[in-house]
Amino acid sequence: MQKLSLNQALQQRLSPQQIQFIKLLQIPTFELAARIEEELEINPALEEGMDLDNDIQEQKDEFDDDYDEYSDDEFADYNDHDIDIDNYLHDDYSGYKMQGDGSGGDEDDKEMPIMMVDSLTDHLTTQLSFLRLGETKEAIGNQLIGSIESDGYIRRPMQAIVNDLAFTQGIYTTVEEVEEVLKSVQTFDPAGIAARDLKECLLLQLDRKDVSDPRVQNAIRIVDEYFDEFSKKHYEKIQRRLNIDDETMKQTIAIITKLNPKPGASDEDGAIVQYLMPDFILVNNNGKLELMLNSKNAPELRVSNSFHEMLETYDKSDKNNKVIKETVTFIKQKLDSAKWFIDAIKQRQQTLLKTMQAIVDYQREFFLTGDESKLKPMILKDIANEIEMDISTVSRVASSKSVQTEYGLYLLKYFFSEGISTESGEDASSREVKNILKELIENEPKKSPLSDDKLEKYLNEKGYNIARRTVAKYREQLNIPVARLRKQL
What we know:
This protein is α+β, with helices and mostly antiparallel strands and about 500 residues long. It has helices at about 15-25, 30-40, 55-65, 75-80, 85-90, 120-130, 135-145, 160-170, 175-185, 200-205, 215-225, 225-230, 235-240, 245-255, 305-315, 320-360, 365-370, 380-385, 390-400, 430-440, 450-460, 470-475, 485; strands at about 45-50, 280-285, 290-295, 300-305, 400-405, 410, 420, 425-430. The chain folds into 4 domains: about 15-90 and about 300-340, no CATH class; about 120-265, no CATH class; about 280-300 and about 345-415, no CATH class; about 420-485, Arc Repressor Mutant, subunit A, CATH 1.10.10. The chain contains 23 helices and 8 strands. The chain has a 4-stranded mixed β-sheet. The chain has a two-stranded antiparallel sheet with strand order 1-4. It has a two-stranded antiparallel ribbon with strand order 7-8. It starts with 15 loop residues before the first helix and ends with a helix.
C-alpha cells in the first residue's frame, strides 16, 4: 500500500545573479569584450554609454506594484528567480547565461579560439586527392587520415583499420594494401606524419634530407640501429660503434634533435592561438605602487533610453489588456537582465581590484624591486583571509588573470607558492628555491649532470631544508629531465 508523506529540507541554491557574477569573474579581459558584445546583441534593454538617472528603476518599481495583482500561470516562471543550479544551466534565459555554459564539468577550462586555419585532416585530405589512387585506395587513405591522432601518429594496428573498412564501408582489403597506402600518406607534409612510433617518425623526416651527406647517413644509422642507446643518451657507446670523432658525433646528434617528434602539433593543424592581455597595470610612482584595471575591464553600460520611454508609454495604457501585460512583462525581464549584468560587471571590477591590491600589498618588496628572491610564500588562503572572501573567489581571479609591471607581464598564479623552511628559521618561497635549482642545473657539467641527491646536498649547503623527493618534484615542475637525460657531449 502506497503512503504519502511530506518532508521538509533546506537547500542552498545559487541565484542567477550569483551565477552571472561567478562566470564573469573567472573570464580574462580578452574574453570580456566578446561576452559584453554578446549580451548587447541578445538584450535590447542594454546599451553602451554612461548610466542614466535612477528614475528608470523608480518607474520600473511602480510597474511592479501595478502588476502584482496579476499572478497568471503564464508569468509564474518569470517570477521564480531562485531556481536550482542544474536547471539554470539548461534554461533558455540567455540574458543570464555566459559563453561556455553547459552540462560538461570541464567546460570552463576550454580555451577560447582567437584564430583558426585549415585543420590537419583537411590539409592531408587535400594532398590525398592529388594522388588519384582510385576509389578503394582513396577510401583506405581517408580511413588512415581519420586514424591520425592530434600529435600526428597512427597508433591503431593495421588489422584494426582493415576491420573498420570492412564493417563500416564494406571495403575488403588486406594489411599489405593498407600499408602500401600508408607509405603514400607518409610522404605528405608535414614530414613525419602518419608514423606509427617515434623511431619511424624520425626516419621519415631524415629520409627527406640530403642522404648523400655523411652526417645524415650517420643520423639514419643511429635512429635505425641504435635507437635504444640514443634514447638513453649512451653517446659514447654509439660513437665507438660508428667509429666517428667527437665533432662529427655532435653534428649528427644535432641533426636528430632538431627533428619534430610531434609533426601533428605544427602550425598547420589549426591550433589555437591566444594573446595575453593584462587585466591589471601596476605603476611604481617614486616608491608608491599605483594599481589600475585595464580599461577594457571597465566598460560603460546603461539601460536603453527606448525602454525608459516604453515604460512611460505603457504606464498610460490599459493595464487590463493581455497583450499589454505580456509586453510589460517582457520589458521587466529585459530590464532585470540588463541591471543584473551591469551590477555583475561592477562587482567584477571591485573584486578584481580588491584581490589584486591584497596581492600587491603582500608581495610589495617584489613589485618594488623585481627581485624574485623577495617573493614571500603565499597561498590562496592568505589572500582570502585578507580580503574576507572565499578561497574559490581568489582562485577564480588568480587562475586566468595577469598584471603588467615595469619588470614584465606576470600571471597572478606566479605569485602563489608554498614555503620552504631555512636554517635561520624563516620561510623561503618555493619560487626562490626553484630559481636556485634551475641555476644549479644550468651551470652543471654537461658531461656529468647533477643527480637529485647532489642537488639536494647543494641546496642544503645553501641553507634550504629540502628533501630529495621535493627536489625531484620541483625539477619536474620546471620540465627538467633527470640527470641521465640531461647528459650532453
